[in-house]
Design goal:
The complex is a heterotrimer of chains A (218), B (480) and C (103). Chain B is built from 21 helices and 2 strands. With 480 residues, chain B is mainly alpha-helical. Chain B has a two-stranded antiparallel ribbon with strand order 1-2. Chain C has 103 residues and is mainly alpha-helical. Chain C has a single domain, classed as Orthogonal Bundle (Helix Hairpins). Chain C is built from 3 helices and no strands.
């Protein structure tokens, strides 16, 4: 059986390799179009221009995917068993968290800001922010009781909602959804990315935590 | 400004359920009310979009104002419009049903997930961009998996896990195909690809990858192994959504790609798909007949009905495509009614063992009537929607001269008849173990009957539905 | 230059195929989830590497953006899959899917 499977997969790989090698050696893809419009995209980093302007709708839905995954994880309930309860962090972890978390937050802020002109952006920054959250969770830090309900949920949906609201606002002025006027595009992208960074970071840390902290309290 | 003709209903159809999901998530105590409000507003938006499209013709919407190939386009023709309509109709019915079905502890998880699923379905049917379709496929897949796991039982969790792995695998095959097409032609827009695609190794590899990935998600025999467990262990309203809409959404993508992007030359592949479809009809029908649990029986019936959809591939005629699309619509409605009926029976008796359906006919006459009506449509008896679809399919088969498919069609009808009557028969006989019944909320029974009646009514709407399908000529221009 | 680009793309095909093999032969769910991620990396590598066929000018940014989108989707799906795996384990005592009765 395994030999047959191996043979099948090797045949598939060979076919794919042949297909890829048959592609033209030169292709500009869409880079001509992306370069032509970069001046009115609001940013100078072409990848950010694609993510937050030309194909912003993909990015918008993808923030939805992240939120949805968290909803799915929360709907599964608690997975923690007695043996998985966190033990008190040792002094090394505790001090490491104290030193690293502020640095990570600064790095996240820089990455988000830099995304407009060099590689970086909301997802990279959100990932670093999420890492800071994971470190805090490992070090035994838990979110304040007063913040676990609605405030936490609002922070999770903020990126998606502001994205949608900004996109919708311009529909009222005879534009399409997510069609930013060039003169405001830069500011709007910065606003959306900033809030998306926050939501992404919190969502990633929450995914690591597993169950809904509100339900864990009860 | 004219409200109906100037509003961006296309976007509203995606944004409304998305905002609905966020609202249900933020205010989970009011989730049922918020969900029902969203459901009604989505239905109204679909009606408005239909009016808009009937007045102005097919619609292309450039999100972000860029337009293909740089931006992402949405596209509405008869095909996407009918999918949106059937989704809205099933969606409202399911929402009403679910408002009584779930206990509050489950409802607060169910509603945001269901609203997300709805947003995913609508955005999928509207998308004209193969990469954007990948994102909507994942959105749909993750929502569906979480909904399957909702009951929390060991079997539901295992089914959800398998479903997730299959779903991700299918998506990756699809995405690899997208990568090849993009690097070959520098665009991911379906219309632009359709103009440029010609036979080449990259295109063939993309066809192989994308068709395989989508067949996994559609669960065409023999790739159906994950479906019965996932569809039968989910809560009843979720089973209905999966069988009626989620499986169809992947088929919709396949249909779009097949008609627009993949060149005509794949004759052998189309026969293979027809053959797999025929096997699915026979295999699914026989398996359904052998099942002892009602929901598993209905799930195998879905495996079978999926088979019919693939009979159009070897026929490759406009009437053949219309026939299977008609079948898709009537199956969606009939299967929703059937799973709702099974949900009522399960709710009432606490189990769905077919042999113990003791005197359900007397206790739940509305539910049993609904089950029978849905069965009529599945069997393809007049005057139901299923009848029109199979009639058209028979016509396409005769016109193509490939008479052997007709044998499958008739055998499938007989098998369906056999398993539907098996259930109805047991419902009338007295079982040895008496049930401890739990009252079924009236709302759940009546909405089940309404949907079942609609499945029959679909047979009377043939002229309108077939005319809508012609909008934008998704199946090609009719020769006149 | 061109040769390295295609070499990376072929490596992507290799990862995709290895991941597929591992997904099918391994029973443990963690390995299956890892295998899916390796397959995903393979697809991303194909997408990104072939974007550099622009002859001197900057690489095509569109596939890069697609990969970022794909990574976020992969992270989300992996998180859901891992949680589901833990739930399956706590309900059935093992992180494997039992073979279903032959049907």
């Amino acid at each position: 059986m395994r030999l047959l499977l191996m043979a099948l997969i090797i045949a598939m790989a060979a076919g794919l390799a042949y297909a890829i090698l048959s592609l033209p050696a030169e292709s500009a893809g869409l880079s001509v179009y992306t370069t032509e419009n970069i001046a009115i995209s609001g940013v100078t980093n072409p990848v950010t221009a694609v993510l937050l302007n030309y194909r912003a709708y993909d990015t918008f839905l993808e923030l939805g995917v992240l939120l949805l995954a968290l909803l799915g994880v929360w709907s599964l309930g608690s997975t923690a068993t007695a043996s998985q309860r966190p033990s008190a962090p040792g002094p090394v972890l505790d001090n490491l968290a104290r030193v690293l978390v502020p640095i990570l937050i600064v790095v996240a802020g820089y990455l988000f800001w830099a995304g407009a002109y060099i590689p970086g952006g909301a997802f990279q920054a959100g990932a670093v922010l999420g890492a800071a959250g994971v470190l805090l969770i490992l070090a035994g830090w838990r979110i304040n009781h007063r913040l676990v309900g609605l405030p936490l949920r609002i922070s999770l949906v903020l990126g998606l909602v502001v994205f949608a609201v900004v996109g919708t606002l311009f529909m009222l002025t005879d534009r399409q959804f997510l069609e930013f006027p060039p003169q405001y595009a830069g500011v709007l992208i910065l606003l959306i990315e900033g809030l998306a960074t926050l939501s992404i970071g919190i969502a990633l840390a929450a995914l690591f935590l597993g169950a809904d902290p509100e339900e864990d309290d009860n | 400004m004219n409200l109906i003709f100037d509003t961006h209903w296309v976007m509203m159809l995606i944004l409304l359920p998305l905002f609905g999901a966020v609202a249900c998530f933020l205010w989970s105590r009011q989730a049922v009310t918020l969900g029902l409000i969203t459901a009604v507003s989505v239905l109204l938006s679909v009606i408005a979009l239909t009016l808009q499209v009937l007045e102005q013709g097919t619609l292309r919407y450039a999100v972000g104002g860029w337009g293909a190939p740089l931006g992402i386009d949405l596209y509405v023709d008869g095909l996407s419009l009918l999918m949106l309509i059937v989704t809205a109709v099933v969606g409202v019915a399911i929402s009403v049903y679910s408002s009584a079905y779930f206990k509050p502890g489950k409802a607060k998880h169910y509603w945001p997930l269901w609203m997300f699923l709805w947003a995913a379905l609508n955005s999928l049917f509207l998308s004209a961009d193969i990469f954007n379709l990948y994102v909507t496929l994942e959105l749909m897949g993750l929502a569906a998996v979480a909904l399957v796991a909702l009951s929390g039982s060991a079997s539901a969790l295992a089914a959800a896990m398998r479903y997730l792995l299959i779903s991700l695998l299918g998506s990756l095959f699809y995405l690899m195909g997208v990568a090849l097409l993009y690097h070959a032609y520098g665009t991911v827009d379906i219309a632009l690809l359709a103009q440029q695609v010609e036979s080449s190794p990259a295109v063939w590899a993309a066809i192989g990858l994308m068709v395989t990935g989508l067949l996994l998600k559609i669960a065409l025999f023999p790739l159906h192994f994950w479906l019965p467990a996932a569809h039968s262990s989910a809560p009843a309203p979720v089973s209905a959504l999966l069988s009626a809409l989620v499986v169809k959404a992947s088929f919709y993508i396949l249909l779009r790609l097949w008609l627009d992007v993949f060149p005509e030359a794949n004759l052998a592949l189309s026969y293979l798909l027809g053959l797999l479809g025929a096997s699915a009809i026979i295999w699914g029908g026989i398996q359904a007949l052998y099942q002892t649990r009602l929901k598993l029986l209905i799930a195998y019936s879905t495996v079978m009905q999926i088979g019919y959809l693939f009979l159009a591939f070897p026929l490759a005629s406009i009437i053949g495509w219309k026939a299977v699309f008609y079948l898709l619509l009537s199956h969606a409605i009939a299967k929703t009614a059937m799973f709702m009926a099974a949900g009522n029976i399960l709710f009432y008796g606490g189990h769905d063992q077919i042999a113990d359906l003791d005197r359900v006919a007397q206790r739940l006459p509305i539910t049993l009537t609904a089950f029978g009506l849905a069965g009529i449509s599945l069997m393809g008896l007049p005057p139901s929607g299923g009848f029109i679809a199979k009639w058209l399919l028979l016509e396409a088969i005769i016109l193509s001269g490939q008479w052997w498919w007709a044998i499958i069609l008739i055998a499938g009808g007989l098998l369906t008849g056999a398993y539907v009557f098996k259930v109805i028969g047991f419902a009338f006989t007295q079982a040895e173990v008496p049930h401890e019944p739990r009252m079924v909320p009236k709302r759940m029974e009546w909405v089940t009957l309404t949907v079942a009646v609609l499945a029959i009514m679909l047979g009377f709407m043939a002229p309108q539905l077939l005319a809508l399908m012609d909008l934008g000529a998704p199946f090609g221009e009719t020769m006149s | 230059m061109i040769n390295t680009i295609f070499l990376y793309a072929l490596a992507g095909v290799g990862l995709f195929s290895l991941g597929l093999y591992a997904l099918i032969v391994h029973a443990h769910l963690l390995r299956k989830i890892l295998a899916i991620n390796i397959m995903g990396s393979g697809v991303f590598l194909v997408l990104v590497s072939l974007a550099d066929r622009t002859q001197g000018i900057a690489p095509d940014p569109v596939p890069h953006a697609m990969v970022i989108t794909g990574i976020v989707v992969a992270v989300s799906a992996t998180a859901l899959a891992l949680t589901l795996m833990l739930r399956v384990r706590s309900e059935t005592g093992q992180a494997e899917l039992l073979e279903e009765p032959p049907k």
